[in-house]
Amino acid sequence: MQVKYYLVVAFVTEFTFNKLASDFELEDFYIHISKQFFIENIYPEPKLYSIFSQINLRKLYVYKFILENHDNLKIYKFIEKEKDSKLYVFARGGKQKYHIFRDCKTLNNDFKDYHIPREVKENELINEFRAWFEYHNFKEKKLPDRELTALVVFRYNTSFSVKHKLPKLNEGYELIENKQNTGQQHVEDKFDFEKFKAQIEELITLRYNMCTSSTLKYLGFYDYCFKKKDKEIIEKMKSINEAHPEVIGENFLDNYGIERLKNFWSQHFQIKSELFKLLAKYYRWTFNLDQIEFDTLTLESFNLECCKVCKDRLVSENSNQFF
Ligand SMILES: [Zn+2]
């Protein structure tokens, strides 16, 4: 029996919503986001504008846009970004799920994923690593995180890295990432707007105190480089210097120091992530994500699919109705 579940309204968890918003770009939205546009359409605090790069600003705008226009998304065109981030063993860009029943039992299932070592990515051995990880059934071992990490690192260092001539992982390798499936209680009953504003202000000040020169302010836009290798950072700084010698002098890196720069970037990145999280929370509260019922067709056009448990339940509830 075929059930027309697509006529039903659906909802998504905060986790899925965040994923959805970061996976898509609004077509025709490659314009330069001006300060004026930011204040009018994203958030009315001019001091925030100069902290975010254009990519960050677009991401924020899309986040708010999807919430704000959830009733009418069909008329807009979105472009999906590359699905597989190649960062994890199991997250491979498969479809995210939407739910139909608010008490669906899968809603509060937390799950884990495992980072793919950087050297594996750089040597294009992602498929080999994923297959190796699955072959050893690491996920099924049900070990505490620390023991599992030790086991994977040991096996990696004695087999995978040897076979592929890769450097060994150190014991402190961060293998596991616990991902929370946030269920449906993702909007607080009460949003403390004054507290939110104070937190934003505090982060702006923190960032202001860090960026003591126009050079550092500019370098803040490259904070995503904090995890890059020294060689890549040297290259990057060279190209920034060539493009903007007036902002980044030729000897900047020699004088400032590469570790210090990585540290600066890492802190800057963290501040920006916190700001992003706060603003996202504010938008979720403003547009009340908890209450939003999406049209399933719209969600399917965003490449989401119905959760299996919800789908089966809908089939069985519908058949109860008919007989
Ligand atoms: Zn479900």
Protein traits:
single chain, 323 residues, mainly alpha, two-stranded antiparallel ribbon, 14 helices, binds zinc ion
How would you briefly describe this protein structure?
With 323 residues, the protein is mostly helical. It contains 14 helices and eight strands.
Total beta-strand segments:
8
Q: End-to-end span in angstroms? A: 13 Å
Q: What Rg is obtained from the alpha carbons, in whole angstroms?
A: 23 Å
Q: How much helix, percentage-wise, in residues?
A: 40-55%
Strand content: 5-15%
Mean pLDDT, rounded to whole units? 88
What spatial order of strands do you see in the largest sheet?
A: 1-7
- Compressed to H and E, one letter per element, the order equals EHEHHHEEEHHHEHHHHHEHEH
Count of DSSP H/I helices: 14
Shape: globular
Low-confidence stretches are none
The secondary structure category is: mainly alpha
Reported for the largest beta sheet, the result is: 2 strands, antiparallel
Which distinct ligands sit in these coordinates? zinc ion
Structural description of this entry:
With 323 residues, the chain is mainly alpha-helical. Among the domains are: 111-179, no CATH class; 193-286, no CATH class. The protein has 14 helices and eight strands. The chain has a two-stranded antiparallel ribbon with strand order 1-7. A two-stranded antiparallel ribbon has the order 2-3. Helix 4 (54-68) runs parallel beside helix 12 (258-286) and helix 8 runs antiparallel to helix 12 (258-286). The radius of gyration is 23 Å and the shape is globular. The model has no long low-confidence stretch (mean pLDDT 88). The structure holds zinc ion.
